[in-house]
Amino acid sequence: MRWLDVRDIAIALEDAHPDADNVNLRFTDLRAWVMALPDFSDDPNGCNEKILEAIQMAWLDERD
């Protein structure tokens, strides 16, 4: 997965952290969790706040 695979990342995060408070999650934690996903293989510096926000919104949608 790469940073722009927002939906796939959201699904993987829900599987890895089903009880996480994904509404109040700090972006620093979200970034670390994404990079820790087994299928993630993108540049650690390739994300920004907009991408992290998109991942968080997709994760919220995935949970609903």
SSE inventory with pairings:
Layout: H1 6-16, H2 27-36, H3 49-63
Helix pairs in contact: 1-3
- Share of β-strand residues: under 5%
| Residue-averaged pLDDT | 97
The figure for the number of domains is: 1
Tally of strands: 0
Q: What are the low-pLDDT stretches, counting only 5+ consecutive residues below 50?
A: none
Q: In the CATH hierarchy, what is the architecture at level 2?
A: Orthogonal Bundle
Number of helices: 3
CATH topology: Arc Repressor Mutant, subunit A
Q: Overall 3D geometry? A: globular
Q: What profile does the largest beta sheet have?
A: none
For CATH, the homologous superfamily is named as: IscX-like
Describe the structure.
It contains three helices and no strands. The chain is an all-alpha fold. The chain has a single domain, classed as Arc Repressor Mutant, subunit A (Orthogonal Bundle). The longest helix has 15 residues. The termini are far apart.
